[in-house]
Write a structure and sequence with these properties.
Keywords: Coiled coil, Signal. This protein is mainly alpha-helical and 215 residues long. It has 4 helices and 2 strands, in the order αββααα.
Length: 215
Amino acid sequence: MKKDSQWKTKNKIKVLSLLLTVSVIIGAGCSNGSQSETVELNPRSIKTEMIKKQKIGAPIEQVAEVKAGTTLDVVAKANGEVVNVLKKRGEYVEKGDVLFIIDSKQAEIVRRKSEVALQSAQETLKKAEDDQAMNHKNLLDEVTRAENALQNAKQDYNKLRNDFDSGLSTQHMIDQLKQSVENAEMNLKSAQNKLSANDNSNSLASYKTQLEAAS
């Protein structure tokens, strides 16, 4: 029985080897053929859809505190107690936006004092201008009187010289009138110098400076 089983096994191995050899020969013959067959494939239908927006999923959110790389200090132009804050930390602001409100009581007092000082400076300057105008008028009148006095003194002197030629006056009288003419000329020159000094003086400069400071 054992020999019969071994014989059957050997015969199976031979049959398998023969079949393998035949398969190799057939495959070689097919590959060495002069013509090759073309296999046509039938087209397959493709399903298409219109392009449209579609949410893929819920957006990812993350809570964090963002800090600026550059920070600037905002300096108020006036001191005081903050009574109202209009902008919170992190809010966007633009140039000219009011960030907070300061108690204005002290500022109102300072402004009122400045208004009083300004009004006082204006009145002082106006009075100085009026005084200068009045001085100009008085000095101009003084020049006019000095001119008239000199003209009268010259007329009297000329008349007295004519009388002297006629024997109606003395040399002493002529000398006196000549001195009067010289005095009148000196008075006129003095009045003219005063008028010129008044007009060319810069006496209003200090008052104008005070007005500018108050403004």
